[in-house]
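dude i think i finally got it to work??
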Amino acid sequence: MPGTPGAKTVDHQTPAGKIKFHEFTSVFADASYSVGYLDYPDASEDAESVRNRFNTIRDDLLARRQQSRLINEREIKEGAFTGREFLLLNDQKLFTMLRAFLVHKRLYEVSIQLPVAAAFTNGKATSLPQDRTKSFAVSAGKFFASFEVPEIAETMDEFDRAVRDAEMKSPGLQTVVGPCDCLPENSTWDGVLNGKVVHLVTPVFPAIARSAHASGSVNVQVLIDVDGNVVAARAVAGHPLLRAAAEKAARESKFSPTTLEGKPVMVNGVIVYNFKAQ
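look at this
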């Protein structure tokens, strides 16, 4: 948290009644940073309950900021926990990026607010990361990457940690995820990276998988750095006996560097391996 934050506690009206919201805010001449939390009386664990609670959070957020307009919202994940990112425009002058996470009964809200002119290169607020100024991208990247909840960190795997480490090491460096709204409108990329490969390592067919007559496709999510190297890989679909071999092959593969509007970006996408029964 930059600076020395001021603290305040306010009552939020929710479907569960009034709940105290604790907020810590640092205000500077060019931006303000806030971290807050509240505790619901019950936890929302199943997907539908979490989705409904986030919808309520969004509606409450807009009710509290009556001069604000929602530009975009998207689901985000940290470890095993689900979150939402909200982009808000306040009175056509201030831009707010707010990320909310539900960790059992506790809701965390982390936000940065600054003038639209300082946040966007063309002076117009949009949902596209490439329209943001470098200074804003770096400041937001550092701020959000510095926010860590122990319960979330404990559920992170190698892939999640690699993403977090990349954000801490290079704040403001954009990571393109396919499909996503940060790609050009005429893009047909579906997130599958096989077509961008320079050297795709063929996985070794595991003996135990061969004995079990395992076969089929294995989808491996990979994080690729600006030089085209795979810095993290995890299998997200496919036969359990084939996943480790696919992950190993993915880590050893090489891809062409990716740029977006002339700027180097990291890529979060999928490699598909097809195993034929032997």
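The chain has two domains: 6-157, 177-275.
im so relieved honestly
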